[in-house]
Amino acid sequence: MNFGKVNTEQLRVHAARIKGQVKTNAKLVHRHALSTPKKVAITAVATLFIGMIIAQFVYPADKVVLFASVDGVSVGGLTKDEATKKLDTLYAEAKVPIYYRDDANLKVQPSLKDIGISTSNEARVAALNYPWYWRLVPSSLFWYQSFLPSEPITVQKSTDTLKFYMAKTFGETCKIDPVDATIAFESEKLKVVKASSGGTCDYDELYGALEKVSPVPQPEKIVVTGTNINPTVDDTKAEKVLAKLVTRIGDGVSLNIEGKKETIPQQTIYSWLEFKTEDSNLVASINNDRAGTWLSDTYGSRLAIKPGTTTVTTRDFIEVAKVAGASGRALDTTATSTRITQYIRGETESVTAASMVVPATIVYTRSYSATDTGMAALMEHFAKSHPGTYGISLVELSGARRHASYEGATQFTTASTFKLFVAYSTLLRIENGSWNWNDQISNGRNLTKCFDDMIVRSDNACAEALLTKIGFQAITNDARAIGATRTSFLGSDGIKSTAQDESLLLSLLYSGQILSQQGNRDIWINALKRNIYRQGIPAGIPGATVANKVGFLDALLHDAAIVYSPTGTYVLVIMTNNSSWANIAELASQLEALRNGS
User: Fold this and answer.
1) DSSP 327
2) How far is it, in rounded angstroms, from Cα 450 to Cα 462?
3) Calpha distance 230→200 (Å, rounded)
4) Are 276 and 238 in contact, with CB atoms under 8 Å apart?
5) Do the domain assignments include residue 466?
6) Do residue 275 and residue 217 come from a single domain?
7) For FRET with 420, which of 286, 495, 520, 586 sits at 20 to 30 Å CA-CA?
């Protein structure tokens, strides 16, 4: 019994202790629950501030602080280079409105750059720094811009640029020509391009006002004394023309081709239109080139009839027979374009495609006789059918002794073929004893060496030295004494000669009619045979020995030669301007073939 009572009391005491402990724990839990939000909030704020300061410290030094602006232009967050470029571009392109006092319409609006004002914002942007000590201040990244200094803009003004703008825009009389309204095809629509009035003003007043312009993003307007000049075609006139065109063209223009109706689409017609002012009115027309290409590609085959071939037979460049071919037909795009123009202007009520006659293709069958006439005809045809101008002379020195020329008496600047006449005058002085082959001529070279170099290599130094030593008048006299009457070393426009004069000189050289000593003639001819420039006549007659002298200067190409052909020796001189060595070679080849009857 007693054991039971003791246990009950013990249990009661123990229960009371537990109850008290529970109350104590509850109070502790309640107290802890009340303090946790404050700690969290404090921790969050501290973390935010620390993070902000870190972010401010790592904000790039080459960037402008956030929300910064210069003259009301936002540059915050840009790199300093980007900010400088943005500001410089903005100022350069800022427009200066110019008005006349008696006209409410804007006259012109040049940019600051146009009137010679250039700016640099580099120093201003460089001053927009974000110091390290401000970066320690939480949130300063977002409001520090209000403490930034304001640096003045760097400005340069060019008087020359301003004067150029005034001259280009207003001229010496300070006048702007009015611009008529017109119509343009843009974004698949016809639109009126507005007119602008012109006028006259006081040059000095306007120049002075532009000189005083200050660089700001939005310059104030300039108002000067001026007289307005209205355009001939104003916007209202252009609107009326546009309305009529749109109605007239509709969805397209109907085109009658061989009795069948085709429709040229509206957009295609629009793209062909062009406009000009005639008798104070805006007049529309069709551009022939643009329309012609489209019409030819689209409908050309509908009217096309291929022409025949006319065969013409010539002998010595003279027509001896002709077989005519039938004419053809083609779409006349120019006439058709004109008819479309007449339609859109309301001058006609329909459009019919126009055609034109296409002549037969002419094919020539040419032949030449192996005569003087035949060779001259070949020369003429070759010269007229190849690029450039030609002077040609051929003289046979044996056999049939034929001779022919084309423009043989036409003077050409000689280029280096003048050295032929220098060579002749030199040998004359050797033969009369006034000169010796051992005479010193140029750069340590004696006459023997210089003469050879002048002919074989076309050496200019030797040729000029000999020319100076002999004299321009003396060489001209020597040439004319042998009949080369159209050769002159005296002109202010260079040394001149002709194909006939040069062929005469070489013919007399070969036949021994000039110079008294065969040895001297042989020296000259042997040097010609060793000439290193062989792209002309020698290239055209590969089976023959050729003694030649070439000349080339700018577009001039000449070749003067003695040709030792198996069928007889002859002289051939071909002088050209704007031709080629290949053409000279080809002409020589054709003449050689004709001489041989092939």
Assistant:
1) P
2) 5
3) 11
4) no
5) yes
6) no
7) 586
Contacts of 592 (CB under 8 A, 6+ apart): 540, 541, 544, 563, 565
Tokens describing residue 272: 């062909």
- CA 559 to the chain's CA centroid: 36
Q: Is the Cβ–Cβ distance between 283 and 181 less than 8 Å?
A: no
- Identify the band that residue 4 occupies on the pLDDT scale cut at 50, 70 and 90: very low
Closest CA to 71 of 169, 218, 213, 172: 218
Please determine, for residue 194, whether its predicted confidence score (pLDDT) is greater than 90.
Answer: yes
Distance (Å, rounded) from C-alpha 4 to C-alpha 10? 10
Residue 197 contacts residue 52 (beta carbons within 8 Å): no
Closest CA to 87 of 216, 212, 211: 216
Q: What is the pLDDT of residues 154-192, one digit of tens each?
A: 899 999 999 999 999 888 888 889 999 999 999 999 999
The residues, any chain, with a CB within 8 Å of residue 300's CB and separated by 6 or more, are: 330, 331, 333
Residue 188 in domain: no
Tally Cβ neighbours within 10 Å of residue 396.
22
Answer for the pair 197, 178: CB distance below 8 angstroms, yes or no.
Answer: yes
Residues 420 and 497 in one domain: yes
Q: How far apart are CA 505 and CA 386, in angstroms?
A: 27
**How many folded domains does the chain comprise?**
4
Instruction: Give the C-alpha separation, 412 to 391, whole Å.
Output: 8
Name the H helices within 59-98. Answer: 80-93
Are 61 and 81 in contact by the 8 Å Cβ rule? The answer is no
- Provide the token pair at 588: 């020589």
- The answer to whether residues 33 and 68 belong to one domain is no
Q: What is the pLDDT of residues 471-522, one digit of tens each?
A: 999 999 999 999 999 999 998 899 999 999 999 999 999 999 999 999 999 9
Instruction: Clarify whether residues 307 and 281 are in a common domain.
Output: yes
Domain of 258, in residue numbers = 237-363
pLDDT band at residue 572 using 50, 70 and 90 as cut-offs: very high
Residue 35 near residue 120, CB atoms below 8 Å:
no
What is the distance between the alpha carbons of residues 478 and 513, in angstroms, rounded to a whole number?
A: 14
**Token pair 């700018």 in the structure block, residue:** 554
CB 128 within 8 A of CB 90: no
Q: How many of the other CB atoms lie within 10 Å of CB of 170?
A: 20
